Each structure stands twice: as structure tokens, then as C-alpha cells.
What does this fold into?
Amino acid sequence: MDDKALTAIALELYALPFDEFMAARTAAAKSAPAAGSGAAKELTAAVKALPKPSAAAWTVNMMAVHEPTVLARLADLGQRMRAAQASLNAASLRELARERRTLLAAAVETARSVAERQGRAISATIAADVEQTLRALTADEGAAAAVQSGMLVQVLSADGVDTVDLDGAVAVPGAVPVPRTPALPTTVSPHSASAAEAEQHQRTTAAPAARLPADQPRLKAVRETPRPASPSALEKARAAWAEAKSAEEEATQLAAERQNQLAEAASDVSELTSETRDLRARLKAAEEELDSARKQLATAAAEAKQAARAAGKVQRSAMLAHERVLRLGNTRG
It folds into this structure.
């Protein structure tokens, strides 16, 4: 099967408005290369199997298509945060955590705007899933690549410890580059070989030199050559504390936001409940009025029928009287 063809089709499908995906996928499967070869049949089947994205994943895909610079800024922030973590820079981590809160809040608002421009308003729950996915983008290089691919089918989550689970998260996983950690060199370069030879030579000459008083200053200088200092336990603890503090601040802010959303939702429910109660009362009154009007209509219809019958009788009586008058007048003449 042609992975490039599948990726091209997937990119078009996942860039469409949310409600158009299913019909477009069916049309794309039908318009795939005519079934004849095994590869063509596989491509058609693969197109049919492309999953519809969740509402939150679709919203993130819309950002990848229409606001890629927002995702690029978050990805850059994630790289800077990982660099600060690697260097155990506590002050930088705190500052970057504050920057991430600001960027995430702005990105969620952008997501709302993009979704509305594509004909779909997102709820507070979907917005929370979008924020969770964008937070995962800043935590992991693989998640950043998945989000920026524009082919996300489900939300992502990061716990700050393990890498983000991307299993089943992208429609065409092979189209997303997998970040790789550079491996340690397995071969020795000429420069490193020279350094190793020099070090070996130094070790072999160090013992005889140690026995010679005249070489003591040179040996002392070699021993006193400063070595790169590894982070102390205190520095590591401070960096971990800084990261935990940043996570605590983010969690506290997120909890406050969710509490505000809860209060807003509760207020909406209360207002809608009151409005529903009023509408039900009005509906009941209208139904009673309708029932009364129907009874009045039935009564008026019956009375009108009786009146019509009475009018018919009177009309017939008048006609008979008129005919009698005519007969009597003719008789006297």
C-alpha cells in the first residue's frame, strides 16, 4: 500500500469541518484507485478504516491547519522546558511554567475561535481536553509531532514522568516522525583516539614520574586539573522542587478554573431549570386554555347546528305560509 497516498487523503479528511468527515471518507474510499491490484485494495480499506476524530482532537487538528504558529510556539516552549530540566535550572523552570500557563490559556481561546469559524462551538469539557492535549505537546517531543501532524484522532495526556502514550492517537502513525535520542558513538574518532592515546601515555608515564622528585609539580598539575562537576544532590533536589512547585501552581490554577466552570455550569443549570419550570407552567396553562377552547368550539358547533335546523324549520314554515296566501288569493279572485 502507498503510505504517501494514504497520508495525503488523511490530511484532507482531517482538515474538514467535523460533521463532513464521514461522508468525505466514504467518497474518498470510492474515489481511491480502482480495485485491481492488492495495493489498491489495501489503500481503499485503509481509507475506510480511518477513524473519526473526537471533538477535542478535531479542534486541535483545526489549529494545526489554521493556526500552526500557536502550536509551534508551544512546541518551542516545551523544548526550552526540557533543556531547563536537563540543566537543573530551577529559576528558568519556574519562569517557563508561568509562560506555559499564559500560552495555554491563549491557545485554548484560539482553539475556541478556530472551531467556531469551522461551524462548531466547543463546550467547557472539550476545551479542557484540548488544554490537556496541548499541555502534553509541551511535555514530549513525540506528542508535539503528533499534535502538529493535523491527523490526531484522540486526546493526549502527560503525567510529567513517563512519555506520552501515542498508541492509536494518530490516524497514520507512520506519517509522524518519531523523535530519537542520539545514541552514544560506537566507533572512536581520530580525535578521541588521539585523546585516548595521550591519556594512556600519561598513565604509563605517571608512575615513573611519581618516583622522580623533579616531576612532582607536573604530576600535581595533572591531578589538580578541574573536572566537570556533576550536579550535587542539593541541586537536583532544588530542581525537582522547582518543577513540583510549578506543577502545584498549574494544578491549583487549573482547579480554580474548573471550580469557576463548575459555578458557571451550576448557574446555567439553575437558570435553565427555572426557565423550564416556567415553560412547563405556561404549557400547562396553554393546554388548559386549548381544552377549554375546544369545549367551547364543540358547544358552539352544536348550537350552530341546532340554530341551522331551527332556521330551516322556520324557513319551511314561511314557505308553506306564503304558498297558502297565494292559494287563498287565487281562490277569492
Q: What stands out?
A: The first helix runs from residue 3 to 13. Confidence is low (pLDDT under 50) at residues 181-223. The CA atoms of residues 8 and 29 lie 13 Å apart. The radius of gyration is 41 Å.
